[in-house]
Write a structure and sequence with these properties.
This protein is mostly beta strands and 222 residues long. The protein has a single domain (36-220), classed as Jelly Rolls (Sandwich), CATH 2.60.120.560. It has two helices and 15 strands. The protein has helices at residues 2-7, 11-33, and strands at residues 35-37, 47-49, 58-61, 64-68, 72-76, 88-96, 102-108, 120-124, 132-137, 141-144, 155-162, 165-170, 173-179, 199-204, 210-220. It is globular.
Length: 222
């Protein structure tokens, strides 16, 4: 009888534990609701290519969003065509191939043609002639000459934006930590390179572009 008393938990404590569990489950459900899968692995649902993108530039095979040649951009517009994000953490798995040049834009907006005039570009390039390499905030905080991830291997790309604070990690190693100053003057010819709100775009830089993306997700932040 004494042994049983040692392992018995008072009812009040059980009620407290149950309440705590409910709080944790509610919090977890709320966190899950704030996570958005941008790519379903089966189709380009929610994505819209610029009109200047050659046919076949973007396609899906074996759960992978493939970028193959051409010059254009694939914009995430969402189910209603109005997708917009402000504070977020974006993650994706990326694989580049020899000579590829691509990029991940954020806080941008759909355009029929041309380089996106709004938002920032996060560079994707290991061996293209452009000296600005993977993990850089293009023309703002560049990673020069040596890419942190090689061609032909999947790597993790993570972008976090909170207010005017922009951070980038490649395979868990931070490559950018930049806060847009109050008196910010964007690079020449890039007047829209500012923090604001908008959507994402994946770039096909030129006919030699060959890049794979998968597991594309965004976590909404306050």
């Amino acid at each position: 009888m004494a042994l049983l008393e040692l392992v018995m938990i008072p009812r009040a404590s059980l009620r407290t534990l149950a309440a705590s569990a409910c709080v944790l489950l509610t919090a977890a459900a709320g966190f899950a609701a704030d996570a958005v899968n941008l790519f379903d692995g089966k189709s380009l649902a929610g994505w819209k290519p610029s009109k200047n993108s050659p046919e076949g530039t973007y396609k899906v095979a074996d759960g992978v969003l493939q970028v193959r040649g051409g010059q254009g951009h694939l914009y995430y517009v969402g189910t209603d065509g109005k997708a917009s994000f402000k504070n977020f953490e974006f993650t994706a798995k990326v694989k580049t191939y020899k000579g590829a040049n691509s990029g991940i834009y954020f806080h941008t907006a759909y355009q029929d043609a041309g380089w996106p005039s709004a938002g920032y570009e996060c560079q994707v390039n290991a061996t293209h002639a452009d000296k600005k390499k993977t993990g850089g905030l293009y023309a703002v905080k560049d990673v020069m000459d040596v890419a942190p991830a090689p061609d032909d291997e999947w790597f993790d790309y993570r972008i976090r934006v909170e207010g005017k604070h922009i951070q980038i990690w490649i395979n868990g190693k931070q490559t950018v930590d930049f806060t847009e100053p109050a008196d910010w003057t964007p690079p020449k010819g890039m007047a829209g390179r500012k923090v604001g709100a908008g959507t994402f775009a994946l770039q096909a830089h030129d006919p030699g572009c060959k890049v794979d993306y998968k597991d594309i997700k965004v976590e909404l932040l306050p």
